[in-house]
Design goal:
By secondary structure, the chain is α/β, with parallel strands linked by helices. It is about 15% helix and about 25% strand.
């Protein structure tokens, strides 16, 4: 079973040379720490930054440099800072190759709920709805089950939706899964030490398991 850094490290393998990548709040921000040195990508933060680097070393933080989740970050040579209007213009113009988001629920049709739990305080939806409406490739980084042990990969989402039929791939502490065009989750990889049976038990939505499922590599 993976921790949050393990999920981020596995997702970093999905980032290809030359990509412009948006990192959402939560686990996705950790992906910046695991981009291979031989892969040249530009990380975008929706509050107005291109060229985001890994998290700063303790004691070297600069409070003027933050990501969309208000965490302190580093910038890389050639980075650019601009206002949120330009940032969302870039997002809505589909200039982002890959969007990595957190989620509270994902349905077997690729619907995502990631911005609100009814009855609880929420800061706002942020840029999530713009990102899922505009991105061509969305990977979700999330926990497979909630704190009660209930599956977050469902036949249909119970929480308010952020986007419909937009998620392509999901990486959890248990598995890597692909959302099938006809609906359902296809199991691609399992986390180290996790069995197929563990994943089947933790997945409420339709799950397709074909042949031997390899263990994740990093």
């Amino acid at each position: 079973m993976l921790d949050k850094n393990g999920i981020a490290k596995r997702i970093a393998k999905e980032v290809k040379d030359g990509y412009y990548v948006n990192l959402g709040i939560g686990i996705p921000t950790l992906v910046a720490n695991y981009i291979p040195e031989n892969v040249n990508v530009v990380l975008q933060s929706e509050n107005g930054l291109l060229g985001m680097g890994p998290f700063p070393i303790d004691g070297e933080e600069d409070a003027d440099y933050i990501n969309a989740g208000k965490q302190t970050i580093t910038t890389l040579p050639g980075s650019s800072l601009f206002d949120s209007a330009m940032s969302f213009g870039m997002i809505r113009a589909r200039r982002i190759n890959l969007t990595i988001l957190g989620a509270m629920e994902v349905s077997e049709n690729g619907d995502i709920a990631n911005w609100k739990i009814p009855g609880k305080m929420v800061k706002g939806m942020g840029g999530a709805m713009d990102l899922v409406a505009s991105a061509e490739n969305i990977i979700v980084a999330m926990q497979h089950v909630n704190k009660h042990g209930e599956s977050k990969l469902l036949p249909t989402c119970s929480l308010p939706l952020t986007g419909i039929q937009c998620v392509k791939k999901i990486v959890t502490e248990l598995a890597v899964l692909e959302v099938m065009p006809q609906g359902g989750f296809r199991l691609l990889e399992r986390a180290p030490g996790v069995s197929v049976e563990d994943i089947v038990k933790a997945t409420a939505g339709k799950l397709l398991v074909e042949g031997d499922i390899p263990e994740m590599t990093f």
